[in-house]
Write a structure and sequence with these properties.
homotrimer; about 290 residues; mainly alpha; 2 domains
Chain lengths: ~290, ~290, ~290
């Protein structure tokens, strides 16, 4: 049937990302790149290297999913229109006199609009990745989840890896692994949901799910940006899940594990500094153990 | 003909790895992972990251050989049965109350049994890798050797690389390259032997070779575990080989090379600390050279 | 028509690289490897690892282009003749008594001849890479440029990456990215030119272009080796280009960007130490920002 709701969601799920949403995605990614200390200096000193970094920031998720599926990581270079778009935005952002773009981007409404549109592209990437992975592995639902996750949130991994090679050694990059960012958590959740929908385990049509998930993404992102909180929404959900899966051992677990039990019990997301501290402690321990 | 010996080896070479030997392999790999400092804390703080690390430890060799042959590194995720098996073992090992598994694993007989069965899987992996590589490159015997080696002993390389990305920076990881572990040495030897057998340069049937090589692997591994020595068996073999190939120059070689000649003359394996010390010296030298 | 000039260039463009030019390429690459501190010691201590490093130095560009096109990185191992050639040269260079090869190589004419022949192989690699990439992506000229570049000058990236994994951590490796070496600059230029020729945007026959570009490469390389300058020829070209593309903003750019503007205005290549210093400053800045 064609209720107005179905018509709306169907029309929404058919909107093309190309001109405007991609621009928003490139704009947000490249502004985040420019915020990195030294990025502007690199752009002035060696534009070629800066351009490569910009491309990695714009197309990192696609590159990672290509690597994971053994496809040419350079495929994104064959899409000349998007490359031209991203390159021109990179050029404008980094070499515009008086930093006009940064000036304009510093207004909150612009940031909200761009971030919201970027979140929309995330849904499309997840769905595209799952469909793509399904063309390789029929009912390989684990592969579908990972590919959808990689294409949706793999950019950070690629850029961290690139900075590791470049020599900007930052041990904070392990935080990306030890404690997933809110974006990667939400993308993983969406990838799981869309995979279940794709394998017909969820009785909901794809365009409805895309609409609802996008609404969820945009609203949470904008609320997070307005109420400058890093990660709020998933903490209770994580708590229940971690309690359900790993919590019941905590009564039995020996006292020496109690210390690690605390952070996971009061929310994986809400304690950012502690895990890193622990990890560095562990690294220290290891090094001392190795050296002695 | 079907002598009892042939029947035995044939039956042995047809045993399936799936339920029990794979379990032993996962058990040994994951216990080694849990022994790493900080691994248990990571499992409590971020189960997803710990699960990925566990999968890398269980399927690292296959992933590496997939990468080297440009196949999807995620293929191992399509084999749901093994993933489920490894995941459940990971769950039991890391989240079992009172650490019952670690308690039971701490008994020497259990460790010996598990380690012996893990060595059996090594033979199967080498043979599988060589057959797989041969399907790509007819008489590309170098590729066959490398793929057999990668699938048999590539797990350590993958896990070292993963720790490097994660930010656990440990310069000891170069030891894995500078001085190969006993496992990688023995796997390389087996890969060479099985490749020669596969290219009909060795007049021995494959099931006999598999039986003998497995016996050799298991016995050496168990003797090494009982007589807690790290590497014994190959030292004389290496000596003769290194003398044969590189030794004859040592009479002529100039005095400044004499210093490096010493360790290789008394066994590559038997001097673990010296190479690292030298290497770090070299690194220091390089850095000073670069800076001045 | 067949003017003598055309005959000459056609005959030149048909010369096979195999026996002699490849030998020169392996010789130059492996001598550069031996010059690295600690390389000789590694060769004596662990020949297998040293052999792998040597292969990476000899075939790095091909490996990188294979990875970028999702082809088996091990394909170069299937070409047994070149492997045998490179291995024997590696053996002679590293294990020849009295270092006879290094002695002979220390004469300037020998170095000039070998370096000149190595530059000839660079042209062949670029053309081969572009033709290969074109077989994948019709009129994907960006991919063609990158593949030609990777095959021509990707060896340094592969070897840097290998040293990074091995644990020889050298922050100078970022210089390879921040400030491209002269070789990579010239290879990028050639890759662009040959791609335009291949897409019929340059009205010059391929064999003429190959001849002229090779002459340019060899002459600049030899002049650079004689007048021990690191990079001279491209500085003015880069200046004009960077002025044309990014220079016009420098009048408008705010005073705080003036500081970064200076180095790019007086030649990207001619200030080697400054970028690194800046970068390390930036890294420091980042770390302080992160920690506070």
């Amino acid at each position: 049937m064609d209720s107005p709701w179905d018509e709306l969601t169907l029309a929404f799920s058919r909107t093309s990302m190309f001109p405007f949403f991609d621009i928003a995605h490139y704009l947000v990614s490249l502004m985040a790149l420019k915020r990195q200390p030294g990025a502007a200096a690199v752009a002035w000193k060696n534009p070629v290297s800066s351009w490569f970094t910009a491309m990695l920031h714009c197309f990192g998720g696609g590159i990672l999913s290509c690597i994971l599926l053994a496809e040419p990581p350079l495929r994104f270079l064959a899409n000349h229109t998007n490359i031209l778009l991203a390159s021109s935005i990179w050029y404008i952002i980094f070499f515009c006199p008086y930093d006009l773009v940064s000036q304009g981007y510093s207004f909150l409404p612009v940031q909200l609009l761009a971030a919201g549109m970027k979140e929309v592209t995330r849904t499309w990437k997840i769905v595209g990745g799952i469909t793509h992975a399904n063309s390789y592995y029929k009912n390989g639902w684990l592969v579908m989840i990972v590919i959808g996750w990689a294409r949706g949130a793999g950019g950070t991994i690629v850029t961290n890896f690139e900075q590791l090679i470049k020599g900007y050694w930052k041990p904070e990059s392990e935080e990306e692994w030890l404690k997933m960012t809110y974006a990667s958590k939400v993308t993983l959740l969406g990838s799981v949901i869309f995979t279940f929908q794709h394998t017909k385990h969820l009785a909901i049509s794809k365009h409805n799910l895309m609409f609802l998930y996008t609404i969820f993404l945009v609203t949470t992102k904008i609320t997070m940006m307005i109420t400058e909180t890093s990660t709020v929404t998933l903490a209770p959900f994580e708590d229940t899940l971690s309690r359900m899966l790993f919590g019941w051992q905590q009564q039995f677990s020996s006292f020496e594990k109690k210390s690690e039990t605390k952070p996971s019990s009061n929310g994986t997301g809400s304690s950012a500094s502690k895990p890193v501290a622990d990890a560095s402690d562990n690294v220290k321990k290891k090094h001392t153990k190795k050296t002695e």
